[in-house]
Structures are given as C-alpha cells and as structure tokens.
Amino acid sequence: MVVRFPIKYLVTPILIFVAFIFILTIQNPYIGIKLQETENGEWQITSIDTDGWAYEQNIRIGDSVVLIDESDPKLASTVKTYGILEQAHNITIERNGTVMSYAIPRELTEEQFEVFVMFPGIIFLVIMAIAAFIVIKKPDHPYLNSLFFFLVSVGLSYVCGGASSQGHVLPELFNGAAFLFVPYFLLRFLNGYIQSIGGTSIAPPCILRLFIVLNGLLIVMEAVFTLMRAGSAYEIVYCSLLSWFVIECAVCVSLLVIAVLRDRELLRKAEIKIMFLGLLLSFGPFIGLYAIPKLIVGTGWVSAGYTAISLVLLPATFIYLISAKRLLDIDFYIGRFRYNAGLAFILSFVHWLLDSILSHSPDVEIETLIFFPVIIMILLYIKEMLDYRFRSLLFTTTNDFQSRLDQFASHISTVMKVGELEERLIQEIKQVLGIQAVSLVEVDRRDFTIKLIQGYDRYPTELLTDSLFHHPLPAGVIEVLNKGAIVLAGERGEKRYVVWIGDKQNGTSLNIDERVWLQTLSRYVSIVYENLYLIQGLSDEFKDTMNKQSERNTPPWLMRFIFNLQENERSRFALDLHDSVLQNQLYWYRRIGIVTSDFEMSKELRQEMVAIREGLLDVIHETRSTCNELRPSLLKELGLVESLKHLFHTVQLRGNFTIEFDYDEFDTELDYEYTIAVYRIMQELLGNAGKHAKASKVKVHLSIMPQEVSLFYRDDGVGIGNAKMDGDLNHIGLTGIRERVTSLEGRIQFSGNEETIVRIWLPRMFTPDERHP
C-alpha cells in the first residue's frame, strides 16, 4: 500500500523558506559584475548586467578590480564560487592607472526591489494560493499533486532568482533544482489531466525517467562545481542547465502536439487550448527573449527578471480554468463568498450604526469598510469548516440530523411495502425528536373522515379537521397547531397521509434544525409513497388481468412479458450456478487429484478416491450442461442454425433417436427474442420425443420466407392423436409451445395420429443490422 504524504503540510515550510530567501535578497543590492582572472593575475570585468547597481556607476567592461572589501578579489566568496562580484560593501577599481573606490549601498535599489522582491513575491503568493487551493480541495485527483509541484517549482525558481544572482549558495542550488523540474512536473500533470478528460497518456514512462536522471546529474554537477569553487568556469554549469531546460520544454510541447494530432478530440477541448496558450505566454518570453539568445550570442535580449514577469499569466490561466469549471466547481465557493460577504457587511453596518450612536460621530472609519468585514468573513468561513469537521463529534447521533437523513434514505431505499415505510417513519420521528405521541393518519377529503394507520391513538381530531380537509398542504410544509404540528407524508387521490407530532417533553415547539429535518424527511417519504403506490397499482392491475383473462385470450404482450421474465431468471440462475456450484465442484475435483497423487495411501483407498473423482467429474459435466441449457451462450455468438446443430448433437448422444436437420441455406440472423423462442421450442419438442413419444427418428426443417420463419417438426413416436384424446397436451409440453408461439403473434398447427407433426410460422423480425443495411 502506497502512503501519500499530505501536501497541505508542505505549504507552511515553503512559505518559511521563501521568507528566508527574501531576507537574504534585501540585505545587499544586486551589483551585476562578472569577473575573470587574466594571465598576469588581474581580475578583469567581463560583463555588467543592465539590472545591476554597477551599470549606473562609472564602471566599464575591461576595468580591473583591485580590492573587494579591502581584500584581494580572489578571497571574495562569490568570486571564488561563481566568478561574480556580489555581497560586497566597497570595491576598488583600476582603469588605465587610475584607481577609483566605490561604496556599495546596503539595500536594493527601488528598481531591483520591484524585480527581485515585489513581483516575485506577488506572483509566488498567487501561485501558491492557487496550487494549495486546488490540491486541498481536490485530494481525490492524484494528478493535481503534480500540478502543485509544477506551480511551486515555477514560483520557487522565480523567487530564488534574486538571491541566486547575488551569489547566495543555497538559493542558487534550489533555483537550479526547481528550474530543471518545472518541465518534468508539467509533463506529469498533463499526463494525468489528459487521461482524466478521456485522452491517452502523452509521455512514455521512459521520458519521465530520463528527465529525472538527467536533472539529477545536472543538480549534482552544479553542487560539485559550487563546492569546488569553480569561479568563472561556473558559467558552463549555468549554460548546461539553461540548455537542458529549453530541451525539456521543447519535448513537452512536442509530446503535447503529438497527442493532439493522435487524438483529434483533444483539439476540440477548450481546456487544452487554454492551457497550451497560457503556458506559451508564460514561458515564451523567458525562453525566446532570454534563454535562447543567451545560449547563442552569450547574452539575453531582455533580462531574465523582466521576462519572468510574464509568469503572472500562469496562475491567471489556472484561475480561468477553475472559474470556468474546468478543474473545480468554483460556483460553490463564490456562492459561499456572497453569503458570508452579505452577512459580514450587514454586521459591519450594524457595528458602524451602534458606534455612530454611542460616539455621536457618523464618520466611516477604514476598519468599518475593510478590516471588520474581512475578519467577519474569515470567522464565518472558519465556522463552516469547524461545523463540517466537528459536528459529528459535538452532537450525538440522534441530534446529527444530516447523518440521520442519510441513514433513513439508505434504509427506505430497500423498502418494498407501504406498511413497512409507515412503520419506519414513525420510529424515526420518535427516535430523533424524542416524542412518543406521533400518529400517522389517513384523511379522506370526500367524506371528511380520519382513520389512524399507525402510532399514537389519542391524536387531537378536533384540531386536525379544518387544516386537513380545506387547506392545501404541500409535502414538507409543517403547520403548527395549538397542540403539536402536522406534516404531509403522502397523497393518493382524495386521500392524504398526514403525520401528527405532539409537543416535546420540555413543552417547546420544533426548532429550526428539527423543522428542516422534518421537512426533508417528509419529502423523502412522499416520493417513496408515490412510487410504492404506483408499483402496487401496477401489480394489482397485472393480477386482475391474469385472473380475468382465460388462457386462450391472454394478451400476447402479457405472455411475451412472462416468457422474457422466465428467460432472464434462467440466465441469472445459470450464472449463479456457474459462478458458485460449478467452481466449487472444480475446486474439490482438483483437490482430490492433488491428494491422490501427493499422499501415501492404500491401494483400495486410492481406487476409491479415483472413483469419487471420476464421479465428481460426471457431476461437473452435468452441471455445465445444465448451465448451457438454461443459458445457451452460443446463440448470440453462433446464431440459430449452429446452436441447433450443437443442441441436436448433444441430444443424440443422450437419446435413442436420430435427428435429420434441413435448413435450406438459412443464413438470416433473427432478433434474439425470436431466436431464443425457436431454440426453446426445439428443446421442448426433443424432450417430448424422448420421454413421451418414444421416437426413433426426428426430422426438423427450418426455412425462411419473405415475411415469416417456418419450422417443421416430425417424429415417428406414439403420435399426438392419443394425447389430444386423453387431454394430455399440457403434460407433454405442447401447451407451453403454443403459448410461446402465440406470444410472438405466430401460428402453430399440431397433427398426426401415428406420428407427431408440428408446424410453426413466426413473423420475421430482423436484427438492427438487417433493418439498416
């Protein structure tokens, strides 16, 4: 069993880590100088970033850095590790023999604060909120875990960018790892998401494993170069990470395009178009304006910090998908927001009104407009969450009305009788409300009478009369009386079924929760009442029809319905027999074989065991044969003719007569109902030939005509004449055959004194394929 770590517990550590990164970032400005040691031991400036502090100073490429914080440049940690000049407080530069000293400020410039702190912070908080919201609210979708890590990786790589460019080791390592795994988590998310909307997996497992392996190798390489203090050689690592990131993104896009070309339905799904466009606009500027130019010409056309601002479109994409109900049903949460916001502003208005009256000042303060409503909304939302989580713990089962409704609904779903439903209703009200004076009465609006059905027999008839006979009483509407209350449980014609509920033991009336519960309960019961009466009415009508109609004028549709029920029951019984009895027989057959071969026993006992095993094998064959007779599985696969051939072969092995079968190139596939009818008729006729007619030869002819299917049967047995004289047609099964033919609106004819001849004509019913060639 795989145990998943709850992702929601990662939110707080991630936020703490981001706060730590920002603290590191704001302690020093971004200088933006890259250095390289020359052959004569000087540290020459090779690059100045336009976003750095040095770009605004009188510092040029080619100048030599003489001192960093009054020490040799090679001793500076950022120079030794990454070949960059950062985290310094003062520097001394030499240009053509002229020495210049610069004091570096202790904080970020205003522009750097926007690029390294404000924009990343806002985007990260939005990304984090969207990611946490989706995963926490949808824990039953594992692929959303990959979406969480994808969004968090994007946010962390952006957040760590400022501190990483300043030469801080930990942010640099985290930035590289998060940066590389962005395409990996994206691919995993797309895999699961596309499968959830009916597509197929877009990435083979080998691609995902390749991403993990190469990402791991690059991260290890970055850590090794960092520990070795590679200096300016670290640029190789940076370009390697950037190159592999571009390749990963290209693979993701290629796999998505291939999946869309392979499954055209994906192209019609708005979610894929929106997601593809959002990802393209989010990552496109960074890759096209910075990464690719950086790898080709050595510098980006636009700085990485500015291109990363387009990542704001990433959470915007998923916000749209959520609000458009693509990933989540946001309407519920918007509805709760409107409800809580309305209550919050009403309470805020009351607070302002009271404060104005008491302080004699009508001025509207900022806390009344913003902070007070927001606090109330948060408290209301927390209250809803606590209610949902702890209601079952704070309230007993009796007072947990929602739980009781769920239990009652599950119980009445199996109720098949009106009396059982009424008894269950009375018991439920007594148990939940603790009121023993509960009555279910039948009110006849025609003769203005009331009759007790179940429950308390001393209900107040003088209080019920006017309310029940003259006023409309919809299901679920509670009417409070001078003594107790009434609620409609069901209605049938002019008769109403009303529950009277006495007063509670403490003498109080029903509270709000009790009324809502009772209303919902009564609506449940009213629906079940109506369904049970419909079923009972249909059953009564069916019985009346069967009693009134004689065998000869029973409607064909009714007989057809009965035969279909019989076939369904035979099929169900055959499946049960096959899945239980037959499987058990096979199990014990194998066990006996194992015991006989593996255990030492006397010769007599072994012979007895072998005999038992052979006898059990005969029983298995008999059981399997019975299953096939009850549910001829070959009918649908092989058709009528081949199934009849198989039946005739089986019957001849058991019986003492031969069967001649002529079917005149019968190659038409009939409707299954007619196919099973012909098959059952032949089973009955052949059974009669062996048991009653004592026949030695049987002839069967099956032919197809433009509008009919003809079946001719003849055997040389005792003959049907004696059976007619003795009134024994029902005993030999011919009456059942006639009823089956009549149910299909066919014709049947019996004849023969010294032999049995049966002619049957059935209307030709085509299969759907034949109706629509």
How confident overall, as mean pLDDT?
Answer: 77
Biggest sheet features: 6 strands, antiparallel
Q: Structural class of the secondary structure composition?
A: alpha+beta
Helix residue percentage: 55-70%
Number of helices: 25
Summarize the model shown.
The chain is of the alpha+beta class. The chain is 60% helix and 12% strand.
Structural write-up:
It is a single chain. The protein is of the alpha+beta class and 773 residues long. It is 60% helix and 12% strand. Strands 4-1-2-3-5-6 form a six-stranded antiparallel β-sheet. Strands 8-7-11-10-9 form a five-stranded antiparallel β-sheet, sandwiched between helices. Helix 3 packs parallel to helix 11, helix 18 crosses helix 24 and helix 22 packs antiparallel against helix 24. The longest helix has 43 residues, at 556-598. The mean pLDDT is 77.
